[in-house]
């Protein structure tokens, strides 16, 4: 599975003019399932995402993870960070762009598998993190964000490494 994560001051997803998910400071994660991915690879990616240190500590170094900046009740930590997580499905992250000028989506999971794995990812995220919002799987979404830094990272797990 793949997640493109961005540290944000705020982010929101709208579908047909209505906001379906929004967060304040935290992470926006564009999430994609690839062929062969399993629940185990989704779980491994989630663990990496929640523990990835992209937030600054008191010395200004990226030493704090999303899990470190939010209290278990969802309230901000003492430094004002809120720790929201906005998950948005995006199959185009699996595009094969190695040849030609049109991407191939052969590496992406089928829509049914992609939905199943994204839903699993969301369920597990909600069980492990107090502030989780989402887009709508398969919908045409408009994603807005204020990138903080900018700080953007590509995280990936492989089925054989799960």
TrEMBL record:
GO terms for biological process: D-amino acid catabolic process. Transmembrane segments: none annotated. It is found in: Cytoplasm. SUPFAM superfamilies: DTD-like (SSF69500). A motif (Gly-cisPro motif, important for rejection of L-amino acids) lies at residues 149-150. InterPro entries: Daa-tRNA_deacyls_DTD, DTD-like_sf. It comes from the Bacteria. Its EC number is 3.1.1.96, 3.1.1.-. GO terms for cellular component: cytoplasm. It catalyses: a D-aminoacyl-tRNA + H2O = a tRNA + a D-alpha-amino acid + H(+); glycyl-tRNA(Ala) + H2O = tRNA(Ala) + glycine + H(+). The keyword Cytoplasm applies. It is an enzyme of class 3 (hydrolase). One of its GO terms (molecular function) is D-tyrosyl-tRNA(Tyr) deacylase activity. Keywords: Cytoplasm, Hydrolase, RNA-binding, tRNA-binding. Gene3D superfamilies: D-tyrosyl-tRNA(Tyr) deacylase. Homodimer. An aminoacyl-tRNA editing enzyme that deacylates mischarged D-aminoacyl-tRNAs. Also deacylates mischarged glycyl-tRNA(Ala), protecting cells against glycine mischarging by AlaRS. Acts via tRNA-based rather than protein-based catalysis; rejects L-amino acids rather than detecting D-amino acids in the active site. By recycling D-aminoacyl-tRNA to D-amino acids and free tRNA molecules, this enzyme counteracts the toxicity associated with the formation of D-aminoacyl-tRNA entities in vivo and helps enforce protein L-homochirality. A Gly-cisPro motif from one monomer fits into the active site of the other monomer to allow specific chiral rejection of L-amino acids. This is D-aminoacyl-tRNA deacylase. It comes from Pandoraea aquatica.
């Amino acid at each position: 599975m793949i997640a493109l994560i961005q540290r944000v001051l705020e982010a929101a997803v709208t579908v047909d003019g209505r906001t379906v998910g929004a967060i304040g400071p935290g992470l926006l994660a564009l999430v994609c399932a690839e062929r062969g991915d399993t629940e185990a690879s989704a779980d491994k990616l989630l663990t990496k995402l929640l523990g990835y240190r992209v937030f600054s500590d008191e010395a200004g170094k990226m030493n704090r993870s999303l899990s470190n900046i939010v209290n278990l009740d969802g309230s901000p930590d003492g430094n004002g960070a809120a720790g929201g997580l906005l998950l948005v499905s995006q199959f185009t992250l699996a595009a094969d762009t190695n040849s030609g000028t049109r991407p191939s989506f052969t590496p992406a999971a089928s829509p049914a598998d992609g939905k199943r794995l994204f839903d699993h990812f969301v369920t597990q995220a909600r069980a492990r993190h107090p502030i989780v919002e989402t887009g709508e799987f398969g919908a045409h979404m408009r994603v807005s964000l204020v990138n903080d830094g900018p700080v953007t990272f590509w995280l990936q797990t492989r089925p054989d490494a799960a």
